[in-house]
Amino acid sequence: MRRSPCLRYSFVMAWLSLPAFGRRVRSHWRALLTCIVFVSIAVFLMLTRPDALPESEALDVPVATSDNAPLRAANEFEAILDPSIRSVALFEEAGRVIRHPRCMNCHPRTDRPTQTDAMRPHLPWVAAGQDGGGGPTLRCASCHNADNFEPSGVPGNPGWRLAPLNMGWQGLTLGEICRQIQDPERGGMARDELLHHMREDSLVGWAWHPGGGRTPAPGSQDAFGSLIEAWIATGALCPE
Ligand code: HEC
Ligand code: HEC
What we know:
Blueprint: H1 5-16, H2 27-48, H3 83-98, H4 101-104, E1 114-115, E2 120-121, H5 174-180, H6 191-200, H7 202-205, H8 221-233
């Protein structure tokens, strides 16, 4: 049901004819006063409006970007006899991939991806939108095609989109990420899904052939998958 325009008009008229400072002010002063009041309310609302999402954050947990050491293979951890200690050690090694900028740039805790090894906010400003694939008028796929485009260095994959907010990792410690990815209230992948995703998913796999002169994640997707498999087999325990 629409509110009658007449009713709205009478509110305005009532305000305009209110006595100001004990006497009726001249009509153009009233108009000016009304204008000032409305502008002040608008400015107040703009200044106090809570932002829907925080800005892309400066990372409080540093990420080692110059980490070029080869990824250690899962079987190198067999020397650790205590399975709980081995589990944590395996995840710490896998964490060198998980916390690499190639993965982290798509796993912010905002709706805006980050770019480069320094994980700067994505330029131009893009937002994840409903499905992570961008807003209705600026889709990720407008620029990110099915494959890396070498002439311009723009990375690509057919499924290019941002990880959902509840899978955001930037600024978390490795232990926090480890608990989050196993929390059904948040990420929600079952362990076999997680393993499959890490070992097989081609968006994850992009991190090892990122194109455009970017540093790839250490090791290979397969070696990373084996670390995750061995971590799950030893109880999927998390660092502190
Ligand atoms: C207007 C074009 C454009 C749109 C739209 C766009 N991007 Fe980008 N994106 C780029 C360019 C160009 C680069 C490369 C910048 C560089 O590496 O210096 C880039 C880089 C990235 C990177 C960094 C890769 C890395 O590890 O350095 C990520 C992540 C990314 N985009 C995600 C997204 C997501 C997610 C969307 C949609 C929500 C999106 N982009 C939409 C142009 C775009
Ligand atoms: C281009 C963006 C992009 C990149 C790069 C990327 N991811 Fe993701 N990631 C996603 C999206 C989107 C999802 C959600 C997938 C879904 O719901 O099917 C996701 C989900 C995940 C999940 C599930 C998390 C949870 O809480 O259940 C894991 C694990 C993951 N990614 C690992 C990685 C790793 C490891 C890398 C780097 C080697 C990586 N991702 C790189 C976009 C990306």
